[in-house]
Amino acid sequence: MMIDGIKIKGITSDSRQVRKDYVFVALTGENKDGNKFIDEAVESGAVIVYTEKDIYRKDCIVKKVNNGRKKLAELCNEFYGYPSEKLLVIGVTGTNGKTTTTNLIYHILKEAGIAVGIIGTLHIKIGKKQYPSKLTTPITEDIYYYLNRMVEENIRVAVLEVSSHGLKTDRVYGVKFDIAIHTNINQDHLNFHKTITDYIKSKKKLFDSLAAGKIALINHDDNYGLKMLEGNNEILIISYGLSSKSTVTASSIDTDFLTSFNYCLQRGITTLSGVEIEVFEYPINSNLLGNHNIYNALSAISTCLLLDVPIEKIAKAIKSYPPVTRRMEIIYKDKYTVIDDYCHNPASYEAVFHTIQTLQYNNLYIVNGIRGNRGLDINRRNAEVLKQWYEILNVRKLIITDSVDCVDNLNRVSNEERQAYFEVLKDSLFLFKYEASLRNAIKEILKELKPNDILLLLGAQSMDKGKSIFLDLINEKESINIIQQQSKIYDNIFDNH
């Protein structure tokens, strides 16, 4: 790539990544101003700097732009040879369900023998290689880097989780999406977006980017679904949901610790290759718990049909698909059951509790993590949902924790956030206990679990280590039981001599 006669070897907005003959794009973020790192970038080898400010330097070319983030995306897109135009790209956005939906699509396509890559919350997978993921939607230069890696590895389909942060900050600007999926919209991330209007506007950018003839898969049952389509009359629309008005719906639903339903295509659709699919029904069996996962499955199945995967192969792949990490994940099922879920907003709590309501159990125990560094409002609203469902589900014991033994500074709970949570819960008749340590909280509840009970480990980043802590404690407990049993055997032997 040549700019002003200079051969460019790399593009970045991180001054620490600059090398000789790089372009540095100075971005102004929430906490840092990239313009303050221009000196460092030039010293490291930057030959061209893009900025939104009036800056003059003798030692390198400085170009002023109106929108640094869009310019960064344009530069990366050109540098890597417009990789998304060489792939089929699927983008999934929404408050909840992005991770499950993207990983389910990835699993089905992989099982069908289609070369597929994924970029999302849990990981980045390209062929046999896996890379760690720091953000749901990586920064712009990483997005284009990984899309280019997919092209180099002969990947056919790229599946992307597209967050509201990623859309608002133009991280996927210039990516050519073939299918855009809307899961749902509920109030979240208002510490970043400030208003629900801005949050919706950010989500809508994914659908605004669709070219004529591309496909939008919209959750018809979501209040904001149709808003995603406003102003774009040239795209193809497929709706899904449990409403009979949807293009795709489900019938004969049966949910417990397994889920079954009939996938119902109520109006014919045309695949991306031009094949017509007529109306049909087909039975689906899934390990994913809850009605919210039926929505995720409907969108994933529809997407794979559009990519010409036969419904028989799709159904077989779904049946073999294990729950996604921390998404209604059954991490232990013996005398009692332990379920781990990344609850982070009121809607995700509601989805979990609605699912629990359909299950058979004796007593329900909950260890719930306060959401750290996300503001007072989200914690008040999460606590409100917890309070409302406490009596409905007949919760035997609730322990609230801020996991001081597990969280990093980015997710540490402030005194104000903790107090906001407690103010809601104290204004009620039920009892709860606070335990600062996540390990101690789980250890305490573990002593009380009896056959056919359920333990829920609920919460966002503060609960990420809950599964490993629980399994460690179970192993310790089983080891102690074995030692005690062996001790009794030896005691009996000695008693008989």
Automatic annotation (TrEMBL):
Places the protein is found: Cytoplasm
All copies of domain Mur ligase central, residue ranges: 92-303
Domain Mur ligase C-terminal as annotated: residue spans: 326-460
Tree of life domain: Bacteria
Keywords, comma-separated and alphabetical: ATP-binding, Cell cycle, Cell division, Cell shape, Cell wall biogenesis/degradation, Cytoplasm, Ligase, Nucleotide-binding, Peptidoglycan synthesis
Pathway linked to the protein: Cell wall biogenesis; peptidoglycan biosynthesis
Domain Mur ligase N-terminal catalytic intervals: 7-55
Pfam families linked to this entry: Mur_ligase, Mur_ligase_C, Mur_ligase_M
Main subcellular localisation: cytoplasm
Family listed: Belongs to the MurCDEF family. MurE subfamily.
PANTHER family: MUR LIGASE FAMILY MEMBER, UDP-N-ACETYLMURAMOYL-L-ALANYL-D-GLUTAMATE--2,6-DIAMINOPIMELATE LIGASE MURE HOMOLOG, CHLOROPLASTIC
Protein name listed in UniProt: UDP-N-acetylmuramyl-tripeptide synthetase
Organism: Alkaliphilus flagellatus
